[in-house]
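Subgroup meeting minutes
Present: P.N., E.W., G.H.
Scribe: E.W.

1. P.N. recapped why we're keeping a running log of single-chain structure predictions: easier to compare across weeks, and new members can see raw inputs and outputs side by side.
2. G.H. added today's entry (251 aa).
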Amino acid sequence: MIYFMCATFIVVIVALVTVALMRWFKFGTSASKGKRGENLVADILGDTVSGKQYVINDLLFAVGEGQSCQIDHVYINKHGVWVIETKNYSGKIYGNANADEWTQFLANGRQENKFYNPIKQNQTHIYRLSKYLGVRGIFQNVVVFLSDADITAVEAEVYTVEQLHTIKTKVTHTTLTVEQMELYYTSLLQLKNGDTVSEDEHIANIQEAQWKIAHGICPRCGGDLVLRDGQYGKFYGCSNYPKCKFTKKIK
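Output recorded in log:
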C-alpha cells in the first residue's frame, strides 16, 4: 500500500513538473522570440563607430503623460537616421503600405492572424523622434522580417534580415555631417538613459491608447476623432489636424 502511494505521488509530481516545463517553454520562448530577433538585428548593425555609424538598440521613452514609445533600433550614418522595426514572424505575410492591418498565414494557410501595419507603426516612431529632435526629412522607415517569414506577397518596401546590411551603403537624399550624426546620437542616447519607463508601463500605455481609440479620442494629442472621407475610403482623423495627423481607418 505504501509502495503504491509513493509511486502515485511520484507520477503526480512528474506530471506537474512536465506541465510546468511545457508551459514555461511555450510562454517563455514566445516572450523571448522578439528579443532574439532584435538581438540578431543588433548584431548585424554592429557597434557605434565614431564618425561612421551610431547605433541605439531598444529605445524606450515617455512621450507624455501616460504615453510611451519603444523603438527596436536607431541606426545613424551619413545618409540619414534609420528607424528600424523588427518583426520575428513566421508564415506568409500579406500587406501593403496603405493598409491598417497586414495578414499572417500559418499552417499552409489554415491559420490566419492580423497585425498592425508595421510601416505605419514605424511612422509613429519617426513622428516621435522628429518632434523630439526638432528636425524632419532625415528619417528612413525600415521594417525587417526575420528568415522564417515569407514576404514575397508584401506590396511595400520591407527588408529580410539578410538584406538589412544594405542600408549601410544605401544612398538617400539626405547627407549628414559628422557633427549632425553625433548630435542626433547624443540627444537620443540622453533620451534613452534619462527615462524611467518600464516595459510594464509601456504595455499599459499601449492598452490605454487602444481604449482611447475605441472611445473616439486621439491617442496622440487627446483631440476628438472625426469621421472623414479620403482617397481610400472613410477614416477617423484627429480634430486637431493639421497639427496632429493621427488617422484610424474604418475596417
